Amino acid sequence: MENVTVVDHPLVRHKLSHMRKKETDSARFRLLLREISLLLGYEVTRDLKTEDRTIETPLAEMGAPFLSGRELVLISILRAGNGLLEGMLDLIPSAQVGHVGLYRDPDTLMAVEYYFKVPGNLGDRPVILLDPMLATGNSAVAAAERIKAAGARQIKFLCLLSAPEGIEAFHAAHPDVPVFTAAIDERLNDHGYIVPGIGDAGDRIYGTQ
Ligand code: URA
User: Of all protein residues, whose CA lies closest to atom 7 belonging to ligand 1?
Assistant: First the structure.
Protein backbone atom coordinates (compact mmCIF):
# COMPACT_ATOMS: atom_id res chain seq x y z
CA MET A 1 0.00 0.00 0.00
CA GLU A 2 1.34 3.39 -1.00
CA ASN A 3 2.50 5.81 1.68
CA VAL A 4 2.03 3.20 4.43
CA THR A 5 4.93 1.74 6.39
CA VAL A 6 4.15 -1.47 8.27
CA VAL A 7 6.68 -1.78 11.07
CA ASP A 8 6.69 -5.56 11.25
CA HIS A 9 9.84 -6.16 13.27
CA PRO A 10 9.59 -9.48 15.16
CA LEU A 11 9.64 -7.67 18.53
CA VAL A 12 6.74 -5.47 17.45
CA ARG A 13 4.74 -8.47 16.19
CA HIS A 14 5.41 -10.43 19.38
CA LYS A 15 4.39 -7.57 21.70
CA LEU A 16 1.31 -6.81 19.60
CA SER A 17 0.20 -10.45 19.84
CA HIS A 18 0.33 -10.19 23.65
CA MET A 19 -1.67 -6.96 23.50
CA ARG A 20 -4.35 -8.62 21.38
CA LYS A 21 -5.04 -11.35 23.96
CA LYS A 22 -8.19 -10.55 25.90
CA GLU A 23 -6.66 -11.77 29.16
CA THR A 24 -3.84 -9.19 29.02
CA ASP A 25 -4.62 -6.75 31.84
CA SER A 26 -4.32 -2.96 31.64
CA ALA A 27 -0.99 -2.70 33.44
CA ARG A 28 0.66 -5.13 31.04
CA PHE A 29 -1.18 -3.64 28.05
CA ARG A 30 0.15 -0.16 28.90
CA LEU A 31 3.68 -1.47 29.33
CA LEU A 32 3.56 -3.30 25.99
CA LEU A 33 2.17 -0.22 24.25
CA ARG A 34 4.96 1.89 25.72
CA GLU A 35 7.57 -0.62 24.56
CA ILE A 36 6.05 -0.86 21.07
CA SER A 37 5.91 2.92 20.75
CA LEU A 38 9.69 3.02 21.24
CA LEU A 39 10.09 0.62 18.32
CA LEU A 40 7.55 2.43 16.13
CA GLY A 41 9.10 5.74 17.12
CA TYR A 42 12.47 4.53 15.91
CA GLU A 43 11.01 3.98 12.42
CA VAL A 44 8.80 7.09 12.21
CA THR A 45 11.73 9.37 13.13
CA ARG A 46 14.19 7.72 10.75
CA ASP A 47 14.46 10.83 8.52
CA LEU A 48 15.09 13.38 11.28
CA LYS A 49 17.97 15.63 10.35
CA THR A 50 21.28 15.60 12.20
CA GLU A 51 24.26 17.94 12.19
CA ASP A 52 27.80 17.27 13.29
CA ARG A 53 29.15 19.10 16.32
CA THR A 54 32.67 18.89 17.63
CA ILE A 55 32.98 16.92 20.85
CA GLU A 56 35.79 15.32 22.76
CA THR A 57 35.63 11.66 23.65
CA PRO A 58 38.09 10.45 26.32
CA LEU A 59 40.41 9.61 23.41
CA ALA A 60 39.97 12.13 20.62
CA GLU A 61 38.11 15.07 19.15
CA MET A 62 35.44 14.19 16.60
CA GLY A 63 32.50 15.60 14.65
CA ALA A 64 29.53 13.77 16.21
CA PRO A 65 25.96 13.81 14.86
CA PHE A 66 23.20 15.43 16.94
CA LEU A 67 19.55 16.06 16.06
CA SER A 68 19.20 19.39 14.31
CA GLY A 69 16.43 21.59 13.01
CA ARG A 70 13.26 22.60 14.79
CA GLU A 71 11.96 20.46 17.62
CA LEU A 72 9.53 17.71 16.81
CA VAL A 73 5.90 18.07 17.82
CA LEU A 74 3.93 15.04 19.05
CA ILE A 75 0.16 15.44 18.91
CA SER A 76 -1.94 12.89 20.76
CA ILE A 77 -5.54 12.20 19.78
CA LEU A 78 -7.18 11.80 23.20
CA ARG A 79 -7.49 9.65 24.99
CA ALA A 80 -5.86 6.53 23.56
CA GLY A 81 -3.15 8.55 21.78
CA ASN A 82 -1.59 9.17 25.19
CA GLY A 83 -0.65 5.50 25.33
CA LEU A 84 1.66 6.03 22.33
CA LEU A 85 2.74 9.47 23.53
CA GLU A 86 4.40 8.09 26.70
CA GLY A 87 6.88 5.94 24.79
CA MET A 88 7.50 8.60 22.15
CA LEU A 89 8.41 11.07 24.90
CA ASP A 90 10.78 8.52 26.44
CA LEU A 91 12.49 8.42 23.05
CA ILE A 92 12.43 12.17 22.33
CA PRO A 93 12.10 14.02 25.65
CA SER A 94 12.63 17.41 23.99
CA ALA A 95 9.54 17.05 21.75
CA GLN A 96 6.75 19.57 22.14
CA VAL A 97 3.32 18.12 22.81
CA GLY A 98 -0.20 18.91 21.66
CA HIS A 99 -3.55 17.24 22.31
CA VAL A 100 -6.67 16.91 20.19
CA GLY A 101 -9.74 15.69 22.06
CA LEU A 102 -12.09 13.73 19.81
CA TYR A 103 -14.70 11.15 20.64
CA ARG A 104 -16.60 8.91 18.26
CA ASP A 105 -20.32 9.53 18.14
CA PRO A 106 -21.55 5.95 18.73
CA ASP A 107 -24.38 6.31 16.19
CA THR A 108 -22.69 8.11 13.32
CA LEU A 109 -19.09 7.01 14.17
CA MET A 110 -18.11 10.59 13.25
CA ALA A 111 -15.44 12.42 15.25
CA VAL A 112 -16.66 15.15 17.60
CA GLU A 113 -14.06 17.63 18.92
CA TYR A 114 -14.07 18.60 22.61
CA TYR A 115 -10.48 19.79 23.16
CA PHE A 116 -7.70 21.34 21.08
CA LYS A 117 -4.37 22.59 22.39
CA VAL A 118 -1.21 22.50 20.30
CA PRO A 119 2.12 24.39 20.28
CA GLY A 120 1.84 27.71 18.46
CA ASN A 121 4.54 27.24 15.87
CA LEU A 122 3.54 24.11 13.98
CA GLY A 123 4.37 25.47 10.52
CA ASP A 124 8.11 24.88 10.52
CA ARG A 125 8.26 21.72 12.66
CA PRO A 126 7.85 18.04 11.90
CA VAL A 127 4.63 16.81 13.48
CA ILE A 128 3.72 13.23 14.41
CA LEU A 129 0.02 12.63 15.01
CA LEU A 130 -0.63 9.73 17.40
CA ASP A 131 -3.61 7.42 17.76
CA PRO A 132 -3.29 3.67 18.37
CA MET A 133 -6.25 2.81 16.13
CA LEU A 134 -6.84 3.83 12.50
CA ALA A 135 -10.31 2.28 12.20
CA THR A 136 -12.91 4.22 10.19
CA GLY A 137 -10.32 6.97 9.82
CA ASN A 138 -12.83 9.63 10.92
CA SER A 139 -10.87 10.80 13.99
CA ALA A 140 -7.53 10.76 12.20
CA VAL A 141 -8.96 12.67 9.22
CA ALA A 142 -10.56 15.29 11.50
CA ALA A 143 -7.42 15.65 13.65
CA ALA A 144 -5.16 16.04 10.61
CA GLU A 145 -7.54 18.69 9.21
CA ARG A 146 -7.45 20.59 12.52
CA ILE A 147 -3.67 20.58 12.81
CA LYS A 148 -3.27 21.57 9.16
CA ALA A 149 -5.64 24.48 9.84
CA ALA A 150 -3.36 25.36 12.78
CA GLY A 151 -0.40 25.51 10.39
CA ALA A 152 1.13 22.00 10.37
CA ARG A 153 2.71 21.12 7.04
CA GLN A 154 5.05 18.17 7.64
CA ILE A 155 2.82 15.57 9.26
CA LYS A 156 3.16 11.82 9.82
CA PHE A 157 0.46 9.64 11.32
CA LEU A 158 1.52 6.91 13.74
CA CYS A 159 -0.80 4.17 14.92
CA LEU A 160 -0.56 0.69 16.37
CA LEU A 161 -3.26 -1.03 14.33
CA SER A 162 -5.09 -0.06 11.19
CA ALA A 163 -7.96 -1.32 9.05
CA PRO A 164 -7.81 -1.18 5.24
CA GLU A 165 -10.94 1.03 5.31
CA GLY A 166 -9.23 3.53 7.63
CA ILE A 167 -6.09 3.73 5.56
CA GLU A 168 -8.14 4.30 2.41
CA ALA A 169 -10.26 7.04 4.03
CA PHE A 170 -7.22 8.72 5.54
CA HIS A 171 -5.28 8.72 2.29
CA ALA A 172 -8.27 10.01 0.34
CA ALA A 173 -8.41 13.01 2.69
CA HIS A 174 -4.68 13.43 3.37
CA PRO A 175 -2.60 11.90 0.55
CA ASP A 176 0.37 13.96 1.74
CA VAL A 177 0.51 12.32 5.21
CA PRO A 178 2.43 9.04 5.46
CA VAL A 179 0.99 6.39 7.78
CA PHE A 180 3.13 4.20 10.07
CA THR A 181 1.47 1.18 11.66
CA ALA A 182 2.47 -2.10 13.32
CA ALA A 183 -0.17 -4.10 11.42
CA ILE A 184 -3.05 -3.85 8.97
CA ASP A 185 -5.89 -6.07 10.18
CA GLU A 186 -8.67 -7.70 8.14
CA ARG A 187 -11.65 -5.35 8.40
CA LEU A 188 -13.99 -3.25 10.50
CA ASN A 189 -17.07 -4.71 12.16
CA ASP A 190 -20.52 -3.01 12.14
CA HIS A 191 -19.56 -0.92 15.18
CA GLY A 192 -16.40 0.42 13.55
CA TYR A 193 -14.06 -1.82 15.55
CA ILE A 194 -11.00 -3.36 13.98
CA VAL A 195 -11.21 -7.16 13.59
CA PRO A 196 -9.41 -9.14 14.93
CA GLY A 197 -7.97 -6.01 16.58
CA ILE A 198 -7.32 -5.38 20.27
CA GLY A 199 -10.77 -4.13 21.32
CA ASP A 200 -11.25 -0.56 22.56
CA ALA A 201 -7.75 0.87 22.94
CA GLY A 202 -8.76 3.47 25.55
CA ASP A 203 -10.55 0.86 27.66
CA ARG A 204 -7.64 -1.56 27.40
CA ILE A 205 -5.14 1.16 28.40
CA TYR A 206 -7.12 2.65 31.28
CA GLY A 207 -9.16 -0.35 32.46
CA THR A 208 -12.51 1.32 31.75
CA GLN A 209 -15.38 -0.51 30.08
N1 URA B 1 -11.06 2.38 18.37
C2 URA B 1 -10.64 1.39 19.19
O3 URA B 1 -10.25 1.66 20.32
N4 URA B 1 -10.65 0.12 18.75
C5 URA B 1 -11.08 -0.22 17.53
O6 URA B 1 -11.05 -1.40 17.17
C7 URA B 1 -11.52 0.82 16.68
C8 URA B 1 -11.50 2.11 17.12
Answer: 193
The model's pLDDT over 67-76, given as tens digits with 9 standing for 90+, comes to 998 889 999 9
Which CATH architecture is the domain 4-46+72-206 placed in? 3-Layer(aba) Sandwich (3.40)
Domain positions in the chain are 4-46+72-206
Is pLDDT above 80 for 167? Answer: yes
Residue 104 a catalytic site member: yes
Q: Whole-structure pTM over 0.90, yes or no?
A: yes
Burial classification of residue 68, based on how many CB atoms lie within 10 Å of its CB (0-12 exposed, 13-18 middle, 19 or more buried): exposed
**Mean of the per-residue pLDDT values of the chain:** 95
Catalytic status, residue 125: no
Cα(193) to centroid(ligand 1), Å: 5
State which of 26, 138, 200, 205 you would mutate to test the pocket of ligand 1, scoring each by most atoms of that ligand within 8 A of its C-beta.
Answer: 200
193 lines ligand 1 (CB under 6 A): yes
Ligand 1 neighbourhood includes 137 CB (under 6 angstroms): no
Residues 6+ apart with CB under 8 A from 4: 162, 167, 178, 179, 180, 181, 184
